[in-house]
Write the structure tokens for this entry.
Amino acid sequence: MPSRRRLLGLVAAGTLPFAGCLAAPSDADTTTTDSSTTSATTTERGPVRGGAAEATVERTITDDDYQYVESNDTVRYPATMAGEEVIDYDYEPFEEWGHVEGASVAADYLHGLLDERLPEAETLSVSVSSRGEQEGVRLVATLTTHLARDGDVISEPAVSRHEAVRATPHSVAATIHFADRTHEDRYPVYVDERTIQNE
């Protein structure tokens, strides 16, 4: 799972993948071109809210990279890294830190939960996505079909969109404990679907 220092930047940018790649969810079918080394066209369907009961996770954060500063209620975290070496630290209010850290914990838990409920769904990925202040941070489970240039299927989901929606909780409630402080948050969960075709 990506570290929190990566999570901060990627959530701000709009999307963060856990165990896979995901473009920011759209409200309708769209086609975009991937400008990466391997040229591909991506078609996405709009996201649907998970249909299963809410899931809950509780975790105590023990990472030595984080330090709570009681005098101003902030958390110091590694902002710049060179390999495993911390180059620079930054500070964030505890509540903001907790919101982002909670999303990371919730996404990690959701990925494991869906692995248990849908063990055959090898192409299912879980991401943290942000589409602006109004919609806030949410989790997205994505089913991906990969096509060759001629349209032949390279890989496809072993479960249907409907099956994924039934197995996916509509939200994850995360509680994190750190330095004798507690943060609670609830993150909505969506199921999305996309097709990538090589060009």
Notes: The radius of gyration is 18 Å.
